[in-house]
Amino acid sequence: MKRTRLGLSISVLLILTVLITGCFKKEESKVREEGVLKVWVTVLPQADLVRKIGGELVEVNVLVPKGASPEDYEIPPGRLKELSQADVYFVVGHLPLERVWIERIKGINKDLLVVDTSQGIEIIDDNPHIWLSPRLVAIQSRHIYEALSSIDDENKGYYEENYAALQDELEKMDEDIAELFTGIKTRMFLTYHPAWTYLARDYGLTELAIEEHGKEPGPKHVAHIIDVAKKNGIKIVFASPQHSIKSAQVIAKELGGEVKIIDPLPEDYRELYETVSLIADAMRRAEKNK
Fold it and tell me: Which Pfam families would you find in this protein's record (predicted)?
């Protein structure tokens, strides 16, 4: 009788071991079976960073499409079904859109790994545009590397190599951007939407923003902006393709200047250097106008 019970116990243990081992193998082989990790991000610049680190082992999807603004984008109903199949979601952090939707997304995808890439970054006035400073992108990319490596430990070496290459690229961009502002004394620029706050902080610049707390400016604020801009010789007003340029045009006319479009949501992160070059050129022109 004891031998029978012992035999049954051993049989049960063997069955449980097979089942448990099978579960772990299924989880560990997710990348091998499906070919890639299904990754979601909120904005286009994030997608470029994930692709640079994940390479051929990731399939990256972007919540907010090209040309749309994350401030007022409405998610289509069918998008939630796609998100239910995601393995990891990299949030920018501090975007109202993410605050509203991330819990709903987790509700339909219990296994989803959500990574806040703003961890370790000092946030200014809840401003989410942390992807517009190479120094902060270096921190965000570390979170991306660590998350991909934790999900797919078997390919950690591949991610590490790509991550190191990206860090070298960001370090070079940081040095090149700093060089752009060498010798410039009037380090102020005028923009409609305050997307460049972190770039300004990291490189000793002053961002003069027309928009007030996400809304069109009032007459008093417009008068103040025009007064400050004139005192600093500023004639170029930067605007983005995701926002109305009416207020920017009004102010540019008062300054006897022009509106230039710069995109705070580049598909290729390397485009940031060209954009910052335009800001530096505007500063040099402002110095000559003083």
Answer: ZnuA (PF01297)
Task: Count structural domains, the chain.
Answer: 2
What is the residue type of 169?
Answer: E
What CATH number did the domain enclosing 280 receive?
A: 3.40.50.1980
pLDDT of amino acid 180: 98
Residue 141 lies in a domain: yes
263: domain range? 181-289
Nearest by Cα to 51 from 141, 129, 130, 115: 141
Answer whether residue 44 shows pLDDT above 90.
Answer: yes
DSSP-assigned letter for residue 130: G
State whether 139 and 254 are in the same domain: no
Angle at 30 between CA 24 and CA 35, to 5 degrees: 155
Which runs of consecutive H residues, i.e. helices, occur in 38-196?
Answer: 44-54, 79-83, 96-108, 134-151, 156-180
Asked whether 260 and 237 are in contact (CB, 8 A), the reply is: yes
